[in-house]
Every structure is written in structure tokens, then in C-alpha cells.
Amino acid sequence: MALLSVRDLAVQFVTRKATVRAVNGISFDLEAGATLGIVGESGCGKSVSSLAMLGILPKPAGRVTRGEVDFDGVDLLKLPDSQLRQVRGKDIAMIFQDPMTSLNPVLTIGRQITESLRKHLDMSKDEAKKEAVSLLGRVGIPAPEDRIKDFPHQFSGGMRQRVMIAMAISCRPKILIADEPTTALDVTIQAQILDLLKHLVAEENMALILITHDLGVVAGTCERTNVMYAGRFVESATTSSLFARPRHPYTLGLLKSVPRLDAARKEKLEPIGGTPLSMTQDIEGCAFAPRCIYATDKSREETPELARIDSDDHLVACWNPVPDEDLPHVEVVATQAEGRTAR
Amino acid sequence: MSVAEAEAKELRLEQPSSLGRDALERFRHNKAALVGVAVILLLVLVAIFAPLIAPYGPRQQVGALDSSDPEGPSSEHLMGLDEQGRDEFSRVVYGARLSLLVGLVSVTFGLTFGLILGALAGYFGGWIDTAIMRVMDIMLSIPGLLLAIGLVTLLGRGLIQIMCAVGITTIPIFARLLRGAILAQRESDYVLAARSVGVPGGRLLMIHILPNALAPVIVQATLAMATAIIDVAGLSFLGLGPADPGFPEWGKMLADNASRLERAAHLVIFPGAAVVISVLGLNLIGDGLRESIDPKLRS
To answer: What global pTM score does this model have?
Structure first.
């Protein structure tokens, strides 16, 4: 059985004005030690689904309307908050997008790292401090024994994200959820942080869920990638297969809108036409249909479910998957993806 | 990792500093605030060492009992004599004791309850928030001094009662301020991050949210102390001051001699100036604190 098994998870934000259907039934399995990327544009429900799994949706508006999140055979959504707190940080930990605001400005980072150590692992103050120093060393912070006395504002963005990672891995969680861990960092630091994450995950045999809008980030990090659109998964495949033969028109659109060094100089980026749907309405048919050149009447009427295509490993939710002849630069894309994986 | 190391070295050059130390550093460079501290420090010393500074006792009659034309300032009596022949300087000096005490106690009182109510309202939200804040709104809708007058009437006259009454009028200000700050902090990323590692509610509020929300309240507290001194002076002026009529209180001294402004201006000017100076000192400190604590001004 999978370590984490999410079934038909749906989240809504209910306010007096409108109901936003942020997540509309997503399912996936995560094995111990596996790495999964979740890719999609802003507002497609990537972050919300992970907050929902941990039971920390913004209250009172956010609520899980249906679904199951089975972790080690227990449905997290049915646990009372006091028991869920035992899971959060200990078994499942999370790294947030913006390291500049995700650390408490008035507490030393030592204090913030030891907090979960002392709570979850019952360490004494001294033990926790020692462990915090070694954690900071592991995430590549020089002179950790001095720096644990420092406050967040004395660290740079990249360093703060390292601190966040140290906090997240402090209790050796089985699953690490990284929500856009590199979005707020500049490119060189991004690569360092991703490298660090990859190493830590491999060393500790942690499962990683990497949430991002950057295809380049999943390409080098994740074995498997799910593409999300309007609160649903539209395509799920091994990362190399997804880059080589994207089957969903949306995935193809995403790939085509990424600038590439090896593209011909005159070649223009192709943006995806149109704008995402308003998530306040019930969506009939395929949510991507209004922006899709392959859309047919069927797409507009019936919502496609994830179904097998090409191989057992490649799933797509589309009535008219992208035909092979429309895939541009198939080989180039594939080698690029593999090249990044190898690096 | 070489970039990171270089970065770290660079950071090591500066002294390790906490937020409090940073704020103190900025405060020390604020001349106006330092003047405020000096003024208040001086007043505190005056209050403590009043018996050493004042040449006479506050109730001691040293001159003629002349209520129609009290003696003006002279080299012997720096601020002249009052209508009962008491040394005005000694009375102003002793008056510092009461005014500072009143400012401190009433603000501490208001702050304590204001913080509790504001924290409950801000953190729990929902009907608790609504209930607390509506009561606060009602209190705010009554002018502070009027509310204090009503409360003194209710509680009876006396030093403690007056301090409570003035303190109560400051509760809604603190409660509102803290509630707003907590609401802003509650949704911040670091609180979400703390929740994601399983920090329970009470700890979240006390350790994570409250220290971040406290800065504007600290500033307000210094400013409220100034207002409290004025309010108590105002209450005394209206005849609702501390029960003991013999003990000097700046507001009461003003009230007693308001009608003699033309003939004996010194009896109004000196206690009035004392009130103004102490309020000014506290305001300077408050403004200085605001500038040094505000995280947005942090370099």
C-alpha cells in the first residue's frame, strides 16, 4: 500500500459573495521515498490541496468538501486537530514559498528549529539545540553553532530557505511537501536549494511532493509529475515521458511557453491563449476547453477523467489528446529533460 | 557552497543583534526621544527625592494666609506662595509623585485588560470577537473624560478609584490596537509555517503572534500615560480628584486657582507647566519608540 493515498480530494472556499471551487477531486498515490511534482499555473489549487492534506486551510472560509487522505492507513481528514498536530511536522512537513516571511521575525532561528524537535521528539533543551546545530550544518549553513542565535532578518533569502528546510526535516518526516520552494529565490540559489532538497530526500528516504509552476524545477527533481488545471489533474506521467510526449493540450501549451536556450533564435514563445476559468462557477465539460484548439463539442459537455494513454504509467484527462505530429522538437525536449535529471 | 560561505562571513561582520537591540540602537540616535527620556527621568527623580528637593512640606504653612493676593515668586519661594500660604514649589515637587503614579498605574491597568480582550478577540474571531469589540465600540463612543467622570461617580472618590476609572477608559484603545495587529499577524506565512509543524493554538498565540503584534501597543502605552495624567488632572479640576484635599495634585492645584488667574498667575502657570512638561516628555518617548520599533523602518 502506498504511504500516502489521496482520493477524490475537493476543497472549496465559501464566502458570502461566492464559493470558489479550488480543488475539484484529485487522487494520487505516493510511495515511500518517491518524488512527485505538481505543476500548474497560479490559482489552480496546487498549494490549497497540500494545505488541505495537513488540515491547515485558512479558516473559516476553506473547507474540504469530500475525499480521503490516507496516510499510513489513517484518514488524516477524519483526525481531530490534536492528533493531526502530531502528524504535522513529525510525519509530514512542509516548506513554504517565501522564506522572507515564513520565519517568525522575533524568534531566533534556533528557537524555531528546536520547537518541533522538543514537541515531537521530546528532546531536552540541550539535545534539541545540538540537533539544531547539526541540522543547520546539514543544510549548508556555515558556522551553525553561532548562527542558531541569530534572527531571521540576519539571513539572506537563500539562507532562510535553508533554515526552513532544516526546520522541515528536523523530525525526519516521511513526506516533505515543498510548496514553490524556489520561486522567491534567484536562479543560482534556486539550483542550490533544489540540489539540497534532492540530496536530503535521497539520504533520508523521504517522499517529496514538489509544488511548482516551473517545469524546469520538476524536470531535474521529480520522478513523476502531475499537471494541474482548474483544481484537477489533467495529466500524470513519469517526468521524462511527460516532457517527451505531453498528451494534454495544456501540458503542451506549458512546455511551449518555456524559453529554451537551444531554441532557434527567431522562434517566438507561444503563450496559451485565453485566461483561466473563474473558479466560482461549476465547470461543465473539460475546464480547458475554452482555451483549447483541439476542443470538440464533447469536451464542452463531458468532463474527462484521467485515463491510460501510451503506457500504464501515462494518464491524461482529455477527449482529444495531442496527436504525435503536433509535438514539436520531441527529441530536443526529451534530451533536455534527461540532461537536467542527470545533472 | 562558496557563495554561501562568503555571504555568511559578510554577515558575521556585524554584531549579532536582536530586534530589541536594533530598536534600542535607533532609539539612541533619536535626539527628541532622548530629551523625552531625560525629562521623564528628571521627573521620576524629583518624585522619588521630593523630601530632599522641596524646602518645605507640601502641607506646611510658611507664609501669611492670604487667599485674595498670594505672594508671587521670590528668591525665598521660587514659585511663590499659594492661597493658604504654602510654598508652591514644594507642592509642585510633591505633585510629581501623584501624577506619575497615576499615569503608570492607570495605564498598566488598562493595558492588562486591553491586551487580554484584544488577544481573545483577534485570535479567536467569530462571536467572541464580535461580542468583545462591540462593547469596546460602545466604550469608545463615550468621550474618555466623560466616561471617567461616570466611573468615578460609580466607584466613589479616591486615588485607586480614579486610577481604575482612567485605566478603564484606555482599555478599548489597547484592545482595538492589539486585535488589529493580531488579525494581520494571524494570516502571515510564519504562522502558517508554525501550524504546519504542529504548534498548538495557545502556544501559537503567546510565542509566535503576540510578540509580533505588541510593538504598536507599547508605543500607544507611553502616549496613553500622557493622556492619563491629563485626564486625572482634568478630573481633579472638576473636583473629582483624590479624596485627600491637602495632598498636592497638579490638576487640583490648577482647579483651585483658576479663578485667581489674574491676581496670582504663578499658581496656575507652574502646575500647568508641570503637566505640560511631563506630557511632552512622554509623547517624545512614545514617538521615538514608534520610530525605532516599527519594523517597516528597519534598515
So the answer is: 0.76
